[in-house]
Fold:
Amino acid sequence: MPVARVLVDGMPGDMVSVADRGFSYGDGLFETIRFVGGRAPLWARHMQRLQDSSARLRMPAPDVAQLWEEAAAVTQGMDDAVVRLTLTRGIGQRGYAPPASPVGTRVVAAFDMPSISPDVYVQGIRMRWCETRWAPQPLLAGMKHLNRLEQVMARAEWSDPDIADGVVLDLDGHVISATMANLFAVIDGVLVTPSLDRCGVAGVARAEVITTRPGTQLVEMSPSHLRQASEVFLSSSVRGILPVQAVGDTLYVPGPVTRALQQHWRGLGFPMEQA
Structure:
């Protein structure tokens, strides 16, 4: 997917220093934001997570107004775009100790929105069970930090184009998420999603779903619970609400909760094929 436009610390370019702690240690955060017609319907949620995560990592607080100006600049003239905001702790001396007064690095890049088959939203996607497991680390749980090696290893497990994503468990065998989206299930009529207090990324689309459906329960979900679900879907800030038609040999049919949330996504301003 070619980069359309990139700003590094507000200037056109596509390079950062090899001494940058984001490059050396994964010491930073990122957000992946969909822009439609110059609007980013989930912008406030992205910024809240970025601010909260920056505080937890003791990084300089992001300048939200500056990020908006730069995101608007790189997406100018693009009808449907994906913006990646990357913030690092900046350049530092060798060693893990963070600089006392860090000067962060800021990268704002715009990409064309990838094409998605209409069948994905109507019929759903097929998934597999991943062998890679998420390790617990409550200190980093929920954040979208730059170390994505677990996701890389999980996604490397298959090359079948008919499998869109994989379900990943933690080391205790609990269902956590897909490799690049959050997971929801309707079990005995109740919408549930895995608790992410020990590992996993708390997505902004996940937060939107939980707010929209206030009865949603955050649970410790086992594979057996997932196999009993009447509906399963993924939430993604870029792709929206994706019905799941199968996880391994277990089949599902997109149901009323999934369809209602797809309608909510269209109401936010995200184009989605009618389901």
